[in-house]
UniProtKB/TrEMBL annotation:
Protein name (Swiss-Prot/TrEMBL): Beta-ketoacyl-[acyl-carrier-protein] synthase III
InterPro entries to which the protein is assigned, alphabetical: ACP_syn_III_C, ACP_syn_III_N, FabH, Thiolase-like
PANTHER family reported for this sequence: 3-OXOACYL-[ACYL-CARRIER-PROTEIN] SYNTHASE, BETA-KETOACYL-[ACYL-CARRIER-PROTEIN] SYNTHASE III, CHLOROPLASTIC
Metabolic or biological pathway, per its Swiss-Prot or TrEMBL entry: Lipid metabolism; fatty acid biosynthesis
NCBIfam families cross-referenced by the UniProt entry: fabH, PRK09352.1
Domain topic, free-text comment: The last Arg residue of the ACP-binding site is essential for the weak association between ACP/AcpP and FabH.
Active site: 116, 256, 286
Gene, per the UniProt record: fabHA
Residues in Beta-ketoacyl-[acyl-carrier-protein] synthase III N-terminal domain copies: 110-188
Length: 337
């Protein structure tokens, strides 16, 4: 990071709701089949939050797990960044609700809107604050309750999405470790390809917006698919180049979990063996900003990430947005300032 303090992920935590919605369940709700869903997407089931669960509830569970693993008290957190497109409310921010519930009294708190790329935008933002010395510990959370904005009568979208939360505690790490390169991008010309049209200041909630189902997410799937394949590869290329590494140096790729065919294209392009790619979309579907941190947390829990490994997080989503981050894995904190 060009002479700035090195920053890494000290610990992660994740939480997914108990309720499982399987492909067989969806067959009873819309005109679809397990065969269609698994062959086109790789998804077999997804988690759905309870009626009384909001995003801050999922985020809280993931955050507590990450803080416990990092052995850091909530009171020591300097900033909370919540990446989400399904906040509890338009305002106050979900991060403020979480700050109070965690007792993170000294933390500043912001929500970040970059759709499925939110966690990558979040860790990139957090890193700047720690690297320049303003903060020591930042809690970054990707959380979604997508079931609350999904139309379960629309087979084009309802088979894809699920709910969950993943959290990471970022802090200083020894020289040579931690984040080595980032790539963030946006292309607003594709804004309409993936959106939640109603409920904002363009189309405030009215009887008509609800009747027209504008409170549900909409997507032009095949256009997003082409975009996703392109930027997954280019963002991964960019962070490798910026870090001065070849594709052979990748120890673990943690891609956004939208569609197995999108991930497969990156796997082929970078010549990765199965053990070098984290895939959990078969169990969770696409959890937007939560997909990458949940996948990373599961990989850590399964012992798939070792000290010194080069890990790439890469994602894409609504906006349109994309991003990648390359880090050399290290959970040890930097001593001193
Ligand atoms: C959505 C997606 C799985 C659709 O797969 P696809 O192979 O592109 O399929 P198409 O969109 O071409 O649709 C093919 C047909 O399947 C139908 N279909 C769509 N969803 C279906 C479902 N759940 N079950 C059965 N048929 C379905 C379509 O209606 C279409 O029928 P038609 O040819 O009679 O019009 C795929 O485009 C995709 O994954 N896109 C990216 C989505 C994404 O990543 N979104 C989140 C970004 S963060």
């Amino acid at each position: 990071m060009n002479g700035l303090r090195p920053v890494g992920i000290l610990a992660t935590g994740s939480y997914t709701p108990d309720k499982v919605l399987s492909n067989a369940d969806l067959e009873k709700m819309v005109e679809t089949s397990d065969e269609w869903i698994t062959s086109r997407t790789g998804i077999r089931e997804r988690r759905i939050c309870a009626e009384d669960q909001a995003s801050s509830d999922l985020a809280y569970e993931a955050a507590v797990r990450a803080l416990n693993k990092a052995n850091i008290s909530a009171e020591d957190i300097d900033m909370i960044i919540v990446a989400t497109v399904t906040p509890d409310h338009s305002f106050p921010s979900t991060s403020c609700i979480l700050q109070e519930r965690l007792g993170a009294k000294k933390a500043s708190a912001i929500d970040l809107s970059a759709a499925c790329t939110g966690f990558i935008y979040g860790v990139t933002t957090a890193t700047q604050f720690i690297a320049n010395g303003m903060y020591r510990y930042v809690l970054v959370i990707g959380v979604e309750s997508l079931s609350k904005i999904t139309n379960y009568e629309d087979r084009n979208t309802c088979v894809l999405f699920g709910d969950g939360a993943g959290a990471a505690v970022l802090g200083p790490v020894p020289e040579g470790m931690g984040f080595k390169a980032f790539d963030l991008g946006a292309d607003g010309s594709g804004a309409k390809l993936l959106s939640l049209p109603g409920g904002g200041s363009r189309y405030p909630v009215t009887k008509e917006t609800v009747e027209n189902k504008m409170h549900y997410l909409t997507m032009t799937g095949n256009e997003v698919f082409k975009f996703a394949v392109r930027v997954m590869n280019s963002a991964t290329d960019t962070v490798l180049t910026k870090a001065g590494l070849e594709k052979e140096a990748i120890d673990l790729l943690v891609p956004h979990q939208a569609n197995l065919r999108i991930i497969d294209s990156a796997v082929k392009r970078f010549g990765l063996s199965e053990d070098k790619v984290v895939i959990n979309l078969d169990r969770y579907g696409n959890m937007s900003s939560a997909s990458i941190p949940v996948a990373l947390d599961e990989a850590i829990q399964a012992g798939r990430v070792k000290e010194g490994d080069n890990v790439i997080l890469v994602g894409f989503g609504g906006g349109l947005t994309w991003g990648a981050a390359l880090l050399t894995w290290c959970t040890r904190e930097q001593n001193g300032e």
